[in-house]
Amino acid sequence: MAAANPVWRRDLAITLICLFLLTLWEFSGLDLPLVRQFGTAEGFPWREAWLTSTLAHEGGRALGWAVLIWQLSDALWVKPKPMTPSKRERLFWLGVAVANIVFVPALKRVNLTSCPWELGEFGGAAHYVPHWLMGVYDGGPGHCFPSGHAIAAFGFFGLYFLWRPYRPTLARVILGLVLAFGAAFGLAQMARGAHYLSHTLWTGFICWTLCVLADLYARRRGRKTAT
Q1: What is the pLDDT of residues 112-142, one digit of tens each?
Q2: What pTM was estimated for this model as a whole?
Q3: Assuming Cys at both sites, which of 24, 125, 164, 224 could form a disulfide with 171, CB separation 3.0 to 4.6 Å?
């Protein structure tokens, strides 16, 4: 356990820094001004564009399912080689990915925040209400916070934690890809009017935090011995 402490402290520091920056973004009030750069009184021109709707949205969703299926097959049928994650570890982090994929949409179901394209200034009927004003109805259909689409990338932060003790370089590559795809999906959804930037940021933070807690739990349970 002593060897794990530096890694846990680093993960905790990163998590707290991300929370601080996310809080700063929330207090900046820039969510709506930023999304206005993509919308007009007639709506969002990028809403049905091939690049944002077909490639980033539908393609991103398909990519997320493909990665989940690959992770499932890797956990169930691939025989681990020496100095690679065990079958038990692979199954554990598969479970964490599923938890991310289930938890974020569950939060959406109980949240009253509507998507930007539902706002009156973009042709809808809702008025802007910050999502942190819990229980305040904005006049729209709600169920838009946090971003469900972003879990197609951020839901797989666990692959970084899975490979970090064994192949640190590979783990960093995975982390970079998750962040890059998550940012791309978030930008596309913001351009479509489907989400504010904070929706994507919160999804990333939630998925990362769940993985950090899962990694700490796994270490304490003896699922990992390396750092």
Answers
A1: 999 999 999 999 999 999 998 888 899 999 9
A2: 0.92
A3: 164
